[in-house]
Amino acid sequence: LRLLSANVRIPMKVLGDLRAQLAACHIGERGLLELVGRYDLATLDAAFAETLEYTERIARATIDELPDGRYEFTDYLDDDGIDPDPIPIHVTAEVRGSELEINFDGTSPQVKGAINCVLSFTRSAVYACVRCLLPPTLPNNEGYFRAVHVVAPPGSIVNPLPPAPVAARGLTGYRIANAVMGALAQVAPESVPACESGGDTGISLGGYTVDRRAFVFLEFLVCSWGGRPFADGIDGVASMVVNFSNYPVEVIEREYPLRIEEYGFLPDTGGPGKFRGGLALVRRYRFLEESGTFQIRADRSRFAAYGLAGGGSGSPSRSILNPGPDGRELPPKTTLHVQYGDELRHELAGAGGFGNPLERDPNAVLQDVLDEKITPQHAREAYRVALTGDHSCRVDQAETARLRGGGSLLVC
Length: 412
Prior knowledge:
Helix content is about 30%, strand content about 20%. It is of the alpha+beta class. It has a five-stranded antiparallel beta sheet, with helices on one face. The longest helix is centred in the first third of the chain and has 28 residues, at about 10-40. The N and C termini lie far apart (about 60 Å).
């Protein structure tokens, strides 16, 4: 540990992580030894094997109920931060009896930027997506992996060969999940939500204080889910392929030379639909040291989160340095030097909507306006719902019926 401590900028944080991982191993070891002490090894081996086989049986039975066939979908990364070209992630989901194959033929070759995704992560993203189609009570173990086959061409962005850079692979892992879910939505449309925000934003800040103490801030921002076949998308939650949450403002301001000037949801950013997509988040950072280096790894500025079943796309992501008349719009992936007082405003992408927006209950649209999730103008333009009243806002039934083409209003 002394050797590691001497070779990192913030030893306290790195060693704290390592000690936490070591402690988790000790706790796991203790629990396993308790089981061994209670049962003999043969009994444990049989129980472990049966647990996996049970999960496999249920998974295969569930997949067997899906319609056989090939289902294709392509999603895109904006770029790799070096070359400007969009990067396709192409997925073919093939159901064959009780087995499911996820094939990435047609996906981009590995790229120069550090967003290449190692095969283990690619498989993990696929398994997470397939888990969404399986019964919620199914044990979470590798038993269901046996019914799922992942084909990832070597040398592609989803299975790169050395010496491809992979440090920022999390971004591609998100997009893999989005593409897989887009294909699975054709297999089981009643079980798959519209695209989550896919903002995938990583923001880091590094530098030294005036007395030469190093500081390193790293945050991965999560946003919102897409509209579901039965309900709106959830605002402000992590994607299914990660297990973290956004930093509390108080922690950031206590530990780093930053002040959060703005943090909240942006209205009119969730994709319109019978079930609205989750809203985009905004975070605005003010830098409070003499100088430092910001790095942004974002996406979804060119290819918004898709909607399903007639739902609309979410809003794109956006980054601005020193917002205002002289503000500078930033590319989604960039490194910039900042000075005291500089501000970075980052808007994550909104999530996609599910279903025809004209089938959304006008009262749900009204509630969104009252909750400041959408504006009255957006209600009229995206949902064809007219509102009236200065102090007690309500639905204008006649005008709404006219905007929606006549006839009775559709209520969820």
